Amino acid sequence: MHTHLVAALDIGGTKIAGALVDRDGSLLVRARRSTPAQEDAESVMGAVGDVLAELTSSPLWAGVRALGIGSAGPVDASAGTVSPVNVPGWRGFPLVERVGAVTGGVPVVLVGDGVAMTAAEHWLGAARGYDNALCLVVSTGVGGGLVLGGKLHRGPTGNAGHIGHISVDLDGDPCPCGARGCVERLASGPNIARRALENGWRPGPDGDTTAAAVAAAARAGDPVATASYERAAQALAAGIAATATLVEIDIAVIGGGVAGAGDILLAPLRRSLRTYATLSFVQRLTVAPALMGTDAGLVGAAAAAAAAVPAGGANGARTVAAQ
Description:
The chain has helices at residues 41-56, 95-103, 113-124, 183-187, 189-198, 211-219, 223-247, 263-276, 296-308, and strands spanning 5-11, 15-21, 27-34, 64-71, 75-76, 81-82, 108-112, 133-138, 142-148, 151-153, 251-255, 286-289, 319-320. The chain is α/β, with parallel strands linked by helices. The chain starts with a strand and ends with a strand.
């Protein structure tokens, strides 16, 4: 009988996934729905409700002691609300309260998706065994999370480690967040592709203009495609070096779809890091690809919940402030 399970939700702009997770990180029961991202708030909550209905109907649900949510951000764990950029119907949506109402008083822990990925990589992935780590999700945006002193560092609202919005180019392009020259504006997949196209790169006969297509062109020797990845790597290196200088991390783990470019991104990233991470205490910083793949959000949400809720449960508490 599984008595120490954690339920997990991974909420993004394309999918809402759920699972029941055991203490080894194995996903015992899974559920998934597409996110009706362009519909109203209740339609999106309906999809969450469908996923929860599958999980709560499992005989294993009786062993669940907490539920973790990793959501696209911004999130506010102190208020229990989410406002995912790519789900316009949810602005300040009281997700923790709504999920708690469905699940009958199981403690609910909310973190941002970058923090969830970090929790997964620290528990079972590339950051395992490291007490101080930065994990990055380089995808449609650039997110991240921190492990400090062996513990997941969520911050009061669950957004700590959001490296995508460190400015690394003081007079750079305006970022949709309102600042200028953010890491995300230089290093996200869409921005890698945009920059390559603006500088004269042209897609092949299939018309694919994604960052993955730019990576393939770079691998084949296209200088414009290569330069776009090198610029992204430079921005990431500057952000990683700034973080390492502030809080002394031992490893930076790179995940997300753009990390699928492999050495097209990681080789110039390691080179650039030598330029920016120059002080003695950051020179030994390791860079490694993420290992957890597409299940990182679920495993990480489970890890965050398990860490926040003592093994005996939370004495009926509905909500746990993820701090």
